[in-house]
Amino acid sequence: MGNILITGASRGIGAATARVLASKGHNLCINYHQQKDSADQLVKELQKTGIKAIAVQADVSKELQVVDLFNTCDEHLGPLTGLVNNMGILLPQMRVEQMDAQRINCLLTTNVTSYFLCCREAIKRMALKNGGQGGAIVNVSSAASRLGAAFEYVDYAASKGAIDTLTIGLSKEVALEAIRVNCVRPGFIATNMHADGGEPNRIERVKDTIPMGRGGQPEKVANAIAWLLSEEASYVTGSFTEIAGGR
Fold this sequence. Notes:
The protein is of the alpha/beta class.
């Protein structure tokens, strides 16, 4: 099976994706920034399924740390076949008129620069012209890129809009290099990210605005990511999969 790197994988959608991919026999590099205990515990869980799994600390908004992350993955797992760009932060709810440059730049660097850097390193390894065997990249965006997240997280929504554009453009650049690039856009998913924004019970407040009347579980996003990485999706690139309960 494949060797897959997942950024921001110590919790939420990233951790759920790791579990699904491990169940399918993939070896995994679990990237984390700060939550070492959670990442180490997840790796122990994954290894029990018989796959190779490692946890690697890196701030993927930092170029040199991204390079070291991918080199470590090469050393321990072998040739990379898949990348899940999942790292992302959500800052406390705030209107645009209250935002300062420090907040905006922190969020954009973490949520956008990291995806570009990780895509770059993946392409260096996967592209046919570089001696690679091809591969697949899945970017985790958000329904916020379509909805705008007014009054709460316009900066976050804008960062995800950038990821949508990255997906479209990059998928065309690397199609002939046997690399597929796709995107999932989750809506209100039950993860700890809502607490990061200052409202742990946000889904309960907004559920009536969701056509299906409820939030989703990380595993539903993970299953979509796993399919996009698989051979079953070998003719799919530049696509967007909405996982937002109809919103």
